[in-house]
């Protein structure tokens, strides 16, 4: 390692909070598309996308050019103090592109967790109820409320209690965990039955303000539910006056091959939370939904100092244009298809690969101990670490820490993709087992 690398590593250890995780200790110098170059000139193919934040890639030229022009106008007058056009235009655009043929309104915020918090506030205000239902394996943020809604204890919840009250976690199907004696349809029916029991045994639906659901669980391991289960959740909401909130923070903006993942299930949520790839790396989030629900809060009850920063809004408007102009929904499906096929080919050689799954370009695989079939968190960590050391930015996920997830920018070139996959193959050859069990 270079002197510069060691210098910045020491600086990080001396001045940055230990609680902030780093998958890669190199220091970025520049980034374009799906390639990052560090201060020593090393390049990294990005299969992480800043944890799903860069569907349109690093420093997209259309966004960079536009923001340089906007920067000369103003930086942040504060929407609560004086309005500006980009906030208004983005609010309108979000109400137009989100699912649902009904009048909608939007509020802009800073982060995904903040969006979820505000969706809950709005739902509580609208219904006059307190209880919140999320799901096992779900992830919704690191604030006290969203941490309470999150399922994984370490590293997100351990030692940070007490947690917010009136938060309950319902069952969510994961077909990779079903009993061998059950078909997938039978398993889904079983989970739906447990869901109905949940509202008898755990919390009465008349006390529930909202159900917050990731259409595809992100940090939980890219778990894709059956459409019958999603429909059952929506029906419970409709039957009991519960606000259905789709958490699209990781799944939104073309990641799954549709602008929003909930579209795959033919359901229009009452509220939808968005962030991450909304603004190409700028901190921005939103709650969008039925006008009568969003408007339940009075002036001054929602907002924030930096919420809806104008430069972030301008970036988001460009992102939405790019998704359409560059056909990123179609590119997501193509990218996901190629990734899935490559991983199946890789699995023919490596018996530690199991349960490959995807929706669009939201792709994941599980790493198991081939002798026991059990999740192998240690081996997963070694694979991710080796990838980062060899020029491929890679992320793990899953309740048991044994899922490798792929969140490459949707604008990735064939050259970048092939280079990344070549590194992935080398890493598996180095770290994973190299034979199939008989």
Automatic annotation (TrEMBL):
For this protein, the Enzyme Commission number is 2.6.1.19, 2.6.1.22
Which Gene Ontology molecular-function terms are recorded? 4-aminobutyrate:2-oxoglutarate transaminase activity
- Write down a Pfam family by its short name: Aminotran_3
Q: Which cofactor does it need?
A: pyridoxal 5'-phosphate
Say which enzyme class the record assigns.
transferase
UniProt catalytic activity: (S)-3-amino-2-methylpropanoate + 2-oxoglutarate = 2-methyl-3-oxopropanoate + L-glutamate; 4-aminobutanoate + 2-oxoglutarate = succinate semialdehyde + L-glutamate
Pathway membership, UniProt: Amino-acid degradation; 4-aminobutanoate degradation
Keywords in alphabetical order: Aminotransferase, Cytoplasm, Pyridoxal phosphate, Transferase
According to its UniProt record, which protein family does this protein belong to?
Belongs to the class-III pyridoxal-phosphate-dependent aminotransferase family.
NCBIfam families from the entry?
Answer: GABAtrnsam, PRK06918.1
The name on file for this protein is: (S)-3-amino-2-methylpropionate transaminase
């Amino acid at each position: 390692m270079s002197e510069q690398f060691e210098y910045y590593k020491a600086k990080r250890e001396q001045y940055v909070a230990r609680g902030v995780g780093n998958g890669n200790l190199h220091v970025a110098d520049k980034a374009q598309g799906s390639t990052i170059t560090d201060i020593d000139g090393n390049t990294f193919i990005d299969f992480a996308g800043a944890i799903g934040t860069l569907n349109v890639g690093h420093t997209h030229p259309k966004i960079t050019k536009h923001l340089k022009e906007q920067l000369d106008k103003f930086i942040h007058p504060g929407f609560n103090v004086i309005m500006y056009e980009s906030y208004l235009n983005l609010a309108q655009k979000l109400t137009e592109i989100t699912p649902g043929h009904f009048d909608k309104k939007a509020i802009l915020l800073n982060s995904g967790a903040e969006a979820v918090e505000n969706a809950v506030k709005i739902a509580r205000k609208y219904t006059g109820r307190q209880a919140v239902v999320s799901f096992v394996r779900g992830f919704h943020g690191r604030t006290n409320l969203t941490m309470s809604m999150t399922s994984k204890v370490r590293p997100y919840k351990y030692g940070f209690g007490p947690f917010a009250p009136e938060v309950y976690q319902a069952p969510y199907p994961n077909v990779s965990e079903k009993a061998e004696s059950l078909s997938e349809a039978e398993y889904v029916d079983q989970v739906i039955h447990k869901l109905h029991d949940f509202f008898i045994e755990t919390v009465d639906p008349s006390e529930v303000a909202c159900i917050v659901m990731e259409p595809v669980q992100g940090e939980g391991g890219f778990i894709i539910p059956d459409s019958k289960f999603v429909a059952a959740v929506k029906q419970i909401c409709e039957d009991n006056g519960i606000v259905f909130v789709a958490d699209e923070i990781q799944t939104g903006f073309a990641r799954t091959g549709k602008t929003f993942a909930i579209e795959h299930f033919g359901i229009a949520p009452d509220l939808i939370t968005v962030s991450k790839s909304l603004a190409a790396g700028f901190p921005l989030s939103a709650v969008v939904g039925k006008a009568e629900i969003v408007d339940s809060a009075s002036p001054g009850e929602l907002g924030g100092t930096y919420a809806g920063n104008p430069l972030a809004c301008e970036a988001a408007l460009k992102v939405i244009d790019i998704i359409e102009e560059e056909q990123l929904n179609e590119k997501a499906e193509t990218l996901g298809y190629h990734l899935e096929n490559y991983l199946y080919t890789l699995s023919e050689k490596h018996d530690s690969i199991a349960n490959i799954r995807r929706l669009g370009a939201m792709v994941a695989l599980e790493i198991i101990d081939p002798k026991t079939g059990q999740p192998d968190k240690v081996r997963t960590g070694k694979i991710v670490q080796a990838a980062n050391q060899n020029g491929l930015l890679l992320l793990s996920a899953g309740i048991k820490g044994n899922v490798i997830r792929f969140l490459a920018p949707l604008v990735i070139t064939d050259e970048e993709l092939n280079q990344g996959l070549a590194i992935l193959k080398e890493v598996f050859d180095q770290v994973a087992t190299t034979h199939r069990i008989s």
